[in-house]
Amino acid sequence: MNLTKIKMLNKYLLSEMPDVQIGEFPNDLISQRKLLRALMNIRPPMPLDENFLKLQDEILSEEVQERGTVKLSEIPDVEKNIKLWQGDITRLEVDAIVNAANSALLGCFIPLHKCIDNAIHSAAGLQLRDACKKIMDAQGHEEKTGQAKITPAFNLPSKFVIHTVGPIIPPNREPNQSEKNLLASCYESCLKIAAEKNLRNIAFCCISTGEFHFPNKLAAEIAVETVKKFLSKNNLIVIFNVFKDYDLEIYQKIFS
């Protein structure tokens, strides 16, 4: 990565957001890159400068190469048309990856947050937030739980991102039937979009299980049941993408 380019991007973002005060900040590459991600996270949707985007895309493209991409053929099958893979979903070179979004559908605004929404938007670039903003402006209301929207993936190795809003479960409470149905609807909505767009494959994250507190095992069971029902009538390859060892074990037991 080029430190000079990153500093230029940071300087531009700070000029756009004069209320942001960072004080003294280290000038090393890692610190400056963290600052860039943080500033991208908090930047509200507004017109995008072509010179900024050119530099941003160069940086993000370099990072894709550094991380390495994972092709569909490299992911093992667990059943016909179903694959299971553990790792960073932003590395998948597939037709579409699924983002567990919030109802605003604009990405995570918490600097350097570890949620998948933040990871996907950070790797895709500011164009993704802009594309989501256009969708939200056009529909005039927040995205409903269980529904989904599709956007280009921009700097990600996938072609598209499908954004879906999962149900939020209060801590220490089991999901009720309505919430279970809404989670199933998330998977159904994404699968229907993939079929409508003639996509050949789609990679699902573990929707609602992180910040939204849906129990992991129950969420996986709903996901697999919903996907299998859809695949019984549709030709599509589905990848279940997990990040944590705990979720991998859950899916392995389901498919064993």
Write the layout of secondary structure elements.
Blueprint: H1 3-16, H2 29-42, H3 50-67, E1 70-71, E2 77-79, E3 82-86, E4 92-93, E5 96-101, H4 116-124, H5 126-139, E6 148-152, E7 160-165, H6 177-196, E8 201-204, H7 216-231, E9 237-242, H8 245-255
Name the beta content range.
15-25%
Output the strand order for the largest sheet: 2-3-9-8
Q: Which runs of at least 5 residues are low in confidence (pLDDT < 50)? A: none
Per DSSP, the total helix count is 8
Q: What's the overall geometry?
A: globular
- Roughly what is the average pLDDT, rounded to an integer? 96
What class, by secondary structure content? Answer: alpha/beta
Write the element-wise H/E pattern from the N-terminal end onward.
Answer: HHHEEEEEHHEEHEHEH
Task: From the alpha carbons, calculate the radius of gyration and give it in angstroms.
Answer: 19 Å
Count all strands and give the number: 9
Biggest sheet layout? 4 strands, mixed
Brief summary of the model shown:
Helices cover 45% and strands 15% of the residues. By secondary structure, the chain is α/β, with parallel strands linked by helices. It has a 4-stranded mixed sheet.
